[in-house]
Write a structure and sequence with these properties.
single chain, 321 residues, alpha/beta, Rossmann fold, 8-stranded mixed sheet, 10 helices, globular
């Protein structure tokens, strides 16, 4: 898959000076490609960045567990006091990188801002575990949380009250949607709400913004394509609704919050997914964050504007849950 460089319009603005400085640095030195580095080296680089990052806010309690029949590692976050619901969180990372630590700060912010319990999922990643392993893990944890939430908080050692929601950013947004589709089709218990931040819904990477925002905005479409290749090696499968939710029948899915970013190569597929949900009769709250970039949920320590965009998403979640 080839992506030609596109011109950067000088009139394109960013949400604050801090994001502007970040993007200017990326444009000066984008660094080696993930294709050159490979999965192990890209993971080591991310883990090194996480070790030097600011910690997230203090919350009520945090515990690492292994849950469900699939014995999936999770991190359970609890607020101070009773939670208003439980969010199963699926991290982004091109299906290849990301883990419980990469999104620990974001999960803590979510707990603090929305007053919910959070169960972050350390799902299996490609290339060691291609599709459908990550979807299997997401569905398994959602089923486990549903059982725990049935204990209405007081009886559960994890204090995981209903209602249950599923949330994901980027590749995690794709997994959240695929988990909902699987549960719908197999008659499982659907979450009450799906929350998708700049989701990857079209693994063919054929939407216009992949090219119009493909150069100089912090997310390299070829890196996304590399991740897709690891997760779904068969090119012919990438338009399959089982891997690309944009091509699925979306009727009967839970209400959704979909938030995209103006300067994101994945913007159009997220916007299109929100529109298709609405066309299928699914209630949707959709917003494209102006002058924002992909990944704003984990850029709050860098940019006040990114922090505000994340806060708005958490407020939406708290209101609708």
């Amino acid at each position: 898959m080839t992506f030609e460089p596109t011109a950067i319009n000088a009139a394109d603005s960013l949400a604050d000076a801090e994001l502007g400085e970040y993007i200017a640095a990326v444009r000066r030195d984008p660094g080696p490609s993930v294709r050159d580095l490979g999965a192990d080296e890209v993971r080591r680089g991310q883990q090194a960045r996480v070790r030097t990052a600011l910690p997230g806010p203090e919350i009520g309690a945090v515990a690492d567990e292994v849950v469900g029949p699939g014995r999936v590692p999770v991190r359970v976050y609890q607020p101070v006091g009773e939670a208003r619901g439980t969010v199963v969180f699926l991290h982004g990372g091109m299906f290849v990188i990301g883990d419980l630590d990469s999104h620990d700060r974001a999960c803590r912010r979510l707990v603090r801002a929305a007053g919910v319990a959070v169960v972050a999922v350390d799902y299996r990643r490609a290339p060691e575990h291609p599709w459908p392993a990550a979807v299997d893990d997401a569905v398994g944890v959602l089923a486990w949380v549903h059982g725990e939430a049935g204990l209405d908080g007081d009886g559960s050692p994890y204090r995981l009250p209903a209602p249950t929601a599923v949330m994901g950013d980027s590749a995690g947004g794709c997994l959240a949607t695929l988990a909902c589709l699987r549960l719908r089709d197999e008659g499982g218990s659907l979450p009450a709400l799906q929350i998708l931040a700049y989701p990857n819904t079209d693994l063919t990477l054929s939407q216009p913004s992949v090219r119009s925002k493909g150069t100089g905005w912090g997310l390299d479409p070829d890196a996304v394509a590399w991740g897709v290749e690891q997760w779904v090696p068969d090119v012919a499968r990438r338009a399959d609704p089982a891997v690309s939710p944009l091509y699925a029948d979306l009727s009967g899915l839970p209400p959704a919050i979909v938030v995209t970013a103006e300067h994101d190569p994945l913007r159009d597929e997220g916007d299109a997914y929100a529109a298709k949900l609405a066309d299928a009769g699914v209630p949707v709250r959709h917003r494209c964050e102006a002058a924002q970039i992909h990944g704003f949920l984990t850029l709050d320590a860098l940019s006040p504007a990114a922090a505000s965009a994340g806060d708005r998403l958490f407020e939406d979640l708290a209101e609708l849950l």
